[in-house]
Amino acid sequence: MRNSARHKRLKLKSEINVVPYIDVMLVLLIIFMVTAPMLNANVDVNLPQANAKSLQDKKEPVIVSVDSQGQMYLTLGTSKKEPIDANALKVKVGAFVQQNPDVSVLVAGDRDGKYDGVYQVLALLQQAGVAKVGLMSAPESGNPNGRP
What we know:
The chain crosses the membrane at residues 21-39. By secondary structure, the chain is of the alpha/beta class.
């Protein structure tokens, strides 16, 4: 009887052992969770300065200006710069662009102002139905930091 137990063949298992794969995946998950916040921590952006030629347009552009306090001003064609609020800006620019679809719409933001003011103007112009918006800038000065 002992002889038969000794000669009994072991049956092979045809199963995949997934425990090592789970261990590797957990280690990779921890590594990615630790390194992902480090990738976007501090990104320094140095904006380029260029001597770009100004655009020549046959029609007078619509200019929306934002000062350093966030106050908006509108210049339609050859009219004077006038202070305007958000709702009136949407209505006036939307009507003007519907009448003249080829007119250029430009946004001029104060250098010392917050980006939020310019962003709000861009969102208002999109709501007014303006398809293309340009950003105005002053020509490059001789100083490397762009300040006169």
